[in-house]
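--- STAGE predict ---
source: upstream dedup step, 1 unique chain passed
mode: sequence only
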Amino acid sequence: MRFKSFFQKYSPLRLVFIIAIIFSLPIISDVLSKPSILFAPITITSQNSVQTLYRGEFEITLGDLQIDYEGDLDDLVLTVLPGVDYEIVNGTTIVPSINYANNWPAAGEILPVDIQLSDGTDQSEVYPFKILVIPPNRSGILRHEKRSARPPSLWGPD
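--- STAGE serialize ---
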């Protein structure tokens, strides 16, 4: 009699719903107990010091970056964004197209390259990756410096 009154109280649709909840409770409990990384923020915190020769190629890699990310780093994809004073050669490889000027610092000129990381769901903010571009060899100046290392009388006639 109890069995019959149970079915009279609950419709078949309600029973299916109750059974579905009972069987899904362990799954829901398991999902809720794990830390959620579905929306893990990606933050580029800093970078290694890098340099390239004037008009030389440079490949930007994840190893050049310090990244704050709770997910699997192997899931991250690096994208080099179009910008000024560099050309994207092959995915993450750039060639500086910055114009050389005689007033560059001896150490070189800093070239910011806009990059971004993604895990397929989230993206980092655009990060200005800095590359030191070493100036070209100015052979005329080096020759002049060599000559001025000794008094002109020792060189003899030109």
